[in-house]
Structure formats: structure tokens, C-alpha cells
């Protein structure tokens, strides 16, 4: 089938094209790409992680929620397991993360992939896993993005001899152009692709639980209970278009929805990158939940979220200046039938642990304040919250766009900028992706200079004396990978801020 794929590496893209060329649809391409991302982008995604997809299939848009659960279904008393503190140096500042065996939440990605295959796909899981299996066995070339993330996370990865060995050569972190190879992961992918219960009641679950036993509340009961929630996506009207986002447990999606509803009542300034446009988008993104959001939220507060979730959304506006790049990746796929998938997934910063001999990196979601905030503790078996916000944009001309981003608190920023450039100003997708972004965190404005003249930069500095200037593409601003299908065929763009690639077949 004809289609297009955008994502964070050439290998990820090629796996999606492989599925399309074998008759698969956009969902087949998304699954194949996601499995491949666990090899080509192994510090950002994998079978030990979780995520969310927004899927347009047969004209209906669904949320496919396979995010992580809080472990501990076998726990009757006691506090959460202890975690180890690691500080990551980002240059202008450092940030604290909690890692180690006690930081692992229940991974949802394995169950999520099987749910997508069973509900939407044409090809078998065994066929979709072939590119990832081959790549893990034969090796993939380390890209510039892979190297950059490896360097940032090295203080975490260097804690374990097994992890250190996997990502180093002669004791030094792998460099661009060298080869990353993990034959153990290839064998795990083979077993996973042929056994629906491999991560439910089978060896995948057992190996991970055995590895963290004595340090974590993770149990086989937690794996068996983990499920994928497929439900209607949340539709937000914006001008003559509709933006579909996941709803809970995505905090980012509700910020995006609230921001777009606010922006829809204002007139876009003439200059899309000028000071008035910066103020307009910054105001929409930094305010609390819009009252106009309430009618859209019926049936979207489940599993005990409710008012506490809205309170967390408000509280998040007090901490959106976090400097962490956000170790998340995104894939967008479309096909000739108008099906489209945006899928965002993550390992957190990783726990710095491999699950036994499986080659699977374990997540550290319990050590991330954005996912497991101390003032919004989830019950055992409850869904953690997330910044993942894959989206679908349907335009009045019939074009359907899948898009999304990594980047933690900058995910809503990247998405709202992209929608504004595309809808308010009619920019092409490559231009909308390249367009300069700003991110207002507390009172500090983070601003990209490319595409803005020095007069605008001076005005921004005067308006926000506390500011950080970026003179080139930077992963801080996320990676808005987009793929679209419409009357004029396929189009899209990978975001160079995160080594993005785009291709079609």
C-alpha cells in the first residue's frame, strides 16, 4: 500500500515503509516502526517502555492508551521501593532523576503493540517484527541523535556493567558511525512476536520481575493486569479544522486542547514569528485549563482522575520551565486509504537496568516527577500520567495529518506551534515543522532565533529579560514529526531538532 512515515531515525522510517510495501496499512507501519525504534533509538523506546497512539481508522479517530501502570498489586503494606538519585548535566543546569530497579513501572508497550495488531493491522506481528529483529542481530549505525542522548544519559547507563557494555566500545560510549548491536534483544523480539502472552504470563514478564525482585513492587500480577484502553479520541475544533488528542492520562493533550480553544477566539498576528505571535502563543500555553474545555471532557475522566487530574494540570504550569530534553520519541504514519497514526512512546531516562539476559532496557517512570508526581500518587494498578500527546489534524480540504513530538513539557509547545503555522498561516508541513518556536517556562522565555530578525529578538529580550536564546536546531524544543495524506497525495517532515526523517512509498 502507498503511504508515508516520519520518525526519529532512518531505521525507524524504513521499518514502516517495509510494512507498507508488504500490503500493510498505516497501523502496520506504526507497529513495525515502533518495534524498530527500540533498536535504532534504544534509549528512547523499547519493550520496557510505554506510550499512547492516536489512530484514524476507517474515518473514526481512536485513542490507544498503553501507558504504564503503577506496580504493586501484590503489595499489602509498606512504602515504595527505594530508588537511586542521579543528576544529569544539561550545561546551564543539572536535573535530578531517580533510577534503579525500584523506579520501574509496569511497561505497556508490549501489550499496546499486540492490541494494535489485533484491532487494526493487516500483517502478523511476526512479519512486522522482522526489521527490528534483523537490526538487533546485525546492528544499526549510531546516529548523531543516538550519540547525543547517549552522552546525556551516560551517568545513568554507566551504573550497570551490563548496560555499560551494551552501549560502549573499549569502555567509552559509542560514537556516531559506530555500530549498536544487541543479539539478545533479537531473540526476545522473536519470542514476543510469536507469543501473545510473552509479556503477560510468559518469559518476558518473568525475566523482568526476577531482575527487580527485592528492590521493586513489580510482580507478575502487575503484568497480567496491564491492559490497553481503546476509546474515542478527544476532538477539538480549531478554525475550519479538527485536532484529535488522547485525553487522559495525557496532561499534555489537555493543555493542547485548552490552548487551541483559547487561540480560536483570537486573531493571528500578521507576522507569524513576531513579538505579537510570541505573546499570543505563550499566553495560551501558560494559562490554566480554559473553562471552554469543560464540555469536551465528559467521559474522559476515568480511573479516579477527575478533579485531581485538573488540579495536576494547573500545577504543571508552575513547573514548565524544566530543562530536561525529554527522552521520548514519536512516529507518524499515513496510508492511501486515509488511515493515520501518531504514536508517542518512551522509557523515561531508563532505570539504568537491563532485564536479565533479554536485552530489554527497563523504564524509570516512577522516578520521573512529570509521570509520578509526589502530590498525585496513583493507586497500585492505576495509570500513571504522561506528557505523550500524539495527534491527528483533519483539515477542511480533506487533508489528514498525523503528528506529535517528544520533549516533556515542550510537547504542547511544539504541537500548538505546528497547528498554528499550518492552520492560521497555511504553511506547508516542512515549513511548519521548521518554523521557530518559543517556550515560556515560569518567567523565562526560551526562544529560537532562526527565522527571526534581530529586531524581533531585541523586542523579545525587552519583553522577557529572563530568556535563553537558541541559534540552531536544538532537541530542547522537541521533534515534531509529521506525515499527511490528502487530495494532493502525501507530504510530511521529520524534525531536524531530533534527527527527524520522512519518507513515502
Question: Mind explaining what this structure looks like?
Answer:
With 505 residues, the chain is α+β, with helices and mostly antiparallel strands. It has one domain: Gamma-glutamyltranspeptidase, small (S) subunit (Glutamine Phosphoribosylpyrophosphate, subunit 1, domain 1). 33% of the residues lie in helices and 21% in strands. The chain contains 16 helices and 22 strands. The chain has a seven-stranded antiparallel β-sheet with strand order 10-3-2-14-13-1-22, with helices on one face. A hairpin with a 2-residue loop joins β7 and β8. The longest helix is centred in the N-terminal third of the chain and has 15 residues. About 1% of the residues have low confidence.
CATH homologous superfamily annotation: Gamma-glutamyltranspeptidase, small (S) subunit
Shape: globular
By DSSP, the count of extended strands is 22
Q: How much β-strand is present in the residues?
A: 15-25%
Low-confidence stretches: 317-321
**Tally of individual domains:** 1
Name the descriptors:
single chain, 505 residues, alpha+beta, Glutamine Phosphoribosylpyrophosphate, subunit 1, domain 1, 6-stranded antiparallel β-sheet
Present the secondary structure layout.
Blueprint: E1 3-7, H1 10-21, H2 26-40, E2 50-57, E3 60-66, E4 84-89, E5 94-99, H3 109-120, H4 125-128, H5 130-138, E6 140-141, H6 144-157, H7 161-166, E7 168-169, E8 172-173, E9 179-180, H8 183-194, H9 203-212, H10 220-225, E10 229-232, E11 234-238, E12 241-245, H11 251-263, H12 275-286, H13 306-316, E13 328-335, E14 340-346, E15 391-394, E16 400-404, H14 411-424, H15 429-434, E17 438-441, E18 444-448, H16 454-463, E19 467-470, E20 481-486, E21 489-493, E22 501-504
Parallel strand pairs: 18-19
Antiparallel strand pairs: 1-13, 1-22, 2-3, 2-14, 3-10, 4-5, 6-9, 7-8, 11-12, 12-15, 13-14, 15-16, 16-20, 17-18, 20-21
Helix pairs in contact: 1-2, 2-3, 2-5, 5-8, 11-12, 11-14
